[in-house]
């Protein structure tokens, strides 16, 4: 976590009046809010001394504000979207993640230096911490294939590598006009690309807004000669850049991304990234003489220049926090954008699942004929992991299950989840086949930035006593015996993780007896599973007091873990929570955290778990990379840190009265749970 890098325009709490003459400043709630947090009070009318005039870049409405500013001798503030904006363009109604607020000019207009150009020309850009942040930011943007707009398909392959990439832009684009470019400039660029690479294929990349029918471009089909093609497939820009041998642009942001991808693009306009020694400039801007590195350019353009917004906490934030927001949003779009056909979902789960996975296209629930429904609609299939069938497996259904930080309340009490996992390979609690989690752990090597985030997450989980269900903390008995204490967590005995991963010892009583036999002199504390203790699921041990020294009735998981030296378990998630708190963990079965070298395993080893991650890597894989989180306040995908905020602030959604009554009825019929589970 980093503090915001941007300094508000107004000192103290006084907002400076910003007079606007563009309706977008009034109708776009996110833009108004960011400007307010940045120190500006959106106003209408005539400015007076000390006021400012706000215009949107060099939009068709900006002359109105400029004329008022000239008549009243009022300074102009220009506002534009930041370089990482959203999934869809603003024309689709999606709000921006950040803004560029410029009191000198605007970054795409070379007529006068902008605030960004001033930073690039005059800021030392030599701070080690800043440049490390920039390098980490480049790695994250590239690794997650993020761009200004992100409604492209990262699964689409690029054309055969070896082409020259020529980038089109929309006709009338302000950055093209500001560079004094026109259709002739684009044709000149295409001619130069052919002259420089006479034998190479030339790919003319159409702008997404042109492909969507919003605005025309500069190239037409009859501009293409032999070996040239207009290319409008929604391929990831990073995939396109990876396959290119050269990049040509007038002023597109894709030219900036080409620099980050290792190219030295040919630039025919005068965008903000030209003139710093990282481009071949065909219309040089001679006042730019400084030579910068990619990290310095990124630091100025992404960290120092824009202001970024945190939509979950309604505040300005650092670039890194904004990037984390975009990562969560984009992941949801990429996984849910086609919509889903969902099978095996119990009725009470459908509402929460619709909120979680139906943001872009509503889920179609069909448990009778899901495969034909998916084939007819062209949608992928999802199935609750415990309800899959051979037909669904053959059809490639993705399994859904609760995440490891689930809720504030029990799943058996029908409390909606804050986190869920989608697994296209198996499911984490089934050790008989590799899961997506196994694949992530086997292939992950953390960057320094990722390691810092994982370490901060562990620190927060432990200091604030988070667990899977986050039940209220409870006090331990005053007379706990002293000595080497072992915690034995009870489990729901018909749970899928027991059926698939417990082995020969697969009941709570058998586990207790095995732990006592292996540790005759230890102090054994038995903690019944909260679902079982609440009478909602099966797994009671009537004679537990005859085997264990103490039965921790009504004690939450974190309190129990903190009271012991080690944990012995079949497959309980509590073993994972104990690892986070530095406890020795002995596994009798094959839980998702066994066979990685982090636990003492008495069950059979899991052969496909070949990595030996440290705890930080394991936590990043299990709690950041694998699950998805959902914010009950904004209704949007969110990072794990926001989910923890909601749990701590007690703003999470709990089950309603009807669901609570249903859960109690199911508890009375717990031995018949197979009829509805």
Keywords for this structure?
disordered C terminus, 677 residues, single chain, alpha/beta
Characterization of this structure:
This protein is α/β, with parallel strands linked by helices. Helix 5 (128-143) packs across helix 11 (294-304) and helix 17 (448-463) packs across helix 24. The chain is elongated, with a radius of gyration of 29 Å. The model is unreliable at 8-12 and 659-677 (pLDDT under 50).
**Beta-strand fraction estimate:** 15-25%
Question: What share of the residues lie within helices?
Answer: 25-40%
Alpha-beta content class: alpha/beta
Q: In angstroms, what separates the terminal alpha carbons?
A: 41 Å
| Estimated radius of gyration | 29 Å
- According to DSSP, the number of beta strands is 26
Reading side by side through the largest sheet, how are the strands ordered? 2-1-3-4-5-12-13
Low-confidence stretches: 8-12, 659-677
The rough form would be described as elongated
Number of helices: 26
Can you summarize the main beta sheet?
7 strands, mixed
Mean pLDDT: 92
Summed up, what is this model?
The protein has about 675 residues and is α/β, with parallel strands linked by helices. The chain contains 26 helices and 26 strands.
Task: Give the SSE map.
Blueprint: E1 16-20, H1 24-27, H2 29-37, E2 40-43, E3 52-56, H3 62-72, E4 76-81, E5 98-102, H4 115-122, H5 128-143, E6 163-167, H6 174-178, H7 183-196, E7 202-205, H8 208-211, E8 228-231, H9 237-243, E9 244-249, H10 253-260, E10 266-267, E11 280-281, H11 294-304, E12 307-310, E13 315-317, H12 319-336, E14 341-343, H13 347-357, E15 364-365, H14 370-377, E16 381-384, H15 390-394, E17 398-402, E18 419-423, H16 436-443, H17 448-463, E19 485-489, H18 496-501, H19 508-518, E20 523-527, H20 530-533, H21 544-547, E21 550-551, H22 557-562, E22 566-569, H23 574-580, E23 584-587, E24 600-601, H24 615-625, E25 627-630, E26 637-638, H25 640-649, H26 657-668
Parallel strand pairs: 1-2, 1-3, 3-4, 6-7, 6-9, 7-8, 9-10, 10-11, 14-15, 14-16, 16-17, 19-20, 19-22, 20-21, 22-23, 23-24
Antiparallel strand pairs: 4-5, 5-12, 12-13, 17-18, 18-25, 25-26
Helix pairs in contact: 5-11, 17-24
């Amino acid at each position: 976590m980093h503090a915001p890098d941007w300094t508000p325009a107004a000192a103290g709490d006084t907002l400076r009046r910003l007079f606007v003459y563009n309706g977008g400043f009034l109708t776009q709630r996110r833009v108004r809010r960011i400007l307010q947090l940045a120190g500006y009070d959106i106003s209408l009318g005539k400015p007076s001394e000390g006021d400012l005039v706000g215009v949107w870049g060099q939009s068709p409405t900006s002359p109105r504000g400029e004329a008022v500013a000239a008549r009243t001798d009022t300074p102009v503030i220009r506002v534009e979207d930041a370089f990482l904006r959203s999934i869809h363009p603003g024309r689709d109604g999606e709000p921006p993640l950040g803004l560029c607020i410029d009191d000198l000019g605007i970054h795409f207009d070379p007529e006068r230096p902008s605030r960004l150009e001033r930073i690039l020309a005059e800021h030392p850009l030599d701070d080690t911490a800043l440049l490390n942040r920039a390098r980490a930011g480049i790695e994250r943007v590239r690794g997650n294939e993020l761009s200004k707009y992100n409604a492209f398909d990262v699964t689409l392959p690029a054309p055969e590598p070896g082409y020259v990439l020529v980038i089109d832009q929309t006709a009338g684009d302000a950055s093209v006009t500001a560079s004094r470019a026109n259709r002739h400039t684009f044709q000149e660029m295409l001619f130069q690309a052919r002259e420089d690479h006479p034998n190479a294929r030339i790919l003319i990349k159409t702008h997404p807004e042109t492909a969507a029918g919003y605005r025309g471009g500069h190239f037409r089909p009859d501009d293409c000669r032999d070996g040239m093609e207009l290319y409008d497939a929604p391929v990831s820009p990073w995939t396109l850049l990876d396959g290119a041998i050269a990049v040509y642009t007038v002023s597109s942001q894709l030219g900036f991304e080409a620099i980050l991808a290792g190219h030295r693009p040919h630039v025919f306009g005068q965008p903000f990234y030209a003139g710093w020694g990282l481009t071949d400039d065909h219309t040089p801007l001679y006042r730019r003489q400084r030579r910068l590195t990619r990290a310095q350019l990124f630091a100025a353009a992404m960290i120092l220049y824009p202001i970024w917004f945190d939509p979950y906490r309604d505040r300005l934030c650092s670039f890194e926090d904004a990037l984390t927001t975009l990562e969560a949003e984009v992941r949801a779009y990429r996984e849910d954008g086609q919509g889903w056909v969902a099978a095996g979902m119990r009725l009470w789960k459908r509402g929460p699942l619709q909120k979680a996975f139906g943001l872009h296209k509503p889920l179609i629930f069909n448990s009778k004929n899901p495969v034909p429904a998916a084939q007819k609609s062209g949608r992928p299939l999802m199935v609750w992991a415990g309800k899959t069938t051979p037909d669904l497996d053959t059809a490639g259904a993705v399994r859904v299950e609760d995440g490891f930080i689930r809720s504030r309340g029990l799943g058996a009490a029908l409390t909606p989840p804050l986190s869920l996992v989608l697994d296209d390979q198996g499911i984490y609690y089934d050790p008989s086949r590799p899961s997506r989690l196994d694949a992530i752990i086997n292939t992950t090597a953390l960057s320094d930035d990722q390691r810092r985030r994982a370490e901060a997450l562990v620190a927060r989980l432990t200091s604030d006593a988070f667990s899977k269900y986050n039940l209220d903390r409870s006090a331990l008995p005053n007379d706990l015996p002293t000595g080497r204490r072992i915690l034995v967590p009870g489990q729901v005995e018909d749970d899928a993780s027991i059926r698939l991963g417990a082995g020969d010892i697969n009941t709570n009583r058998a586990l207790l007896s095995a732990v006592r036999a292996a540790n005759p002199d230890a102090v054994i504390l038995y903690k019944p599973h909260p679902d079982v203790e609440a009478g909602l699921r099966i797994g009671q041990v009537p004679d537990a007091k005859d085997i264990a020294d103490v039965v921790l009735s009504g004690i939450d998981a974190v309190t129990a873990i903190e009271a012991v030296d080690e944990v012995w378990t079949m497959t309980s998630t509590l073993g994972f929570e104990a690892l986070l708190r530095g406890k020795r963990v002995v596994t009798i079965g094959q839980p998702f955290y066994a066979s990685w070298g982090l636990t003492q395993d008495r069950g059979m080893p899991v052969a496909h778990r070949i990595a030996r991650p440290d705890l930080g890597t394991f936590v990043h894989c299990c709690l950041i990379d694998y699950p998805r989180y959902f914010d009950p306040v904004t209704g949007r995908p969110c990072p794990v840190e926001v989910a923890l905020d909601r749990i701590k602030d007690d703003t999470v959604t709990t089950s309603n009265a009807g669901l609570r009554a249903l859960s109690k009825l199911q508890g009375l019929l717990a031995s018949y749970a197979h009829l509805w589970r």
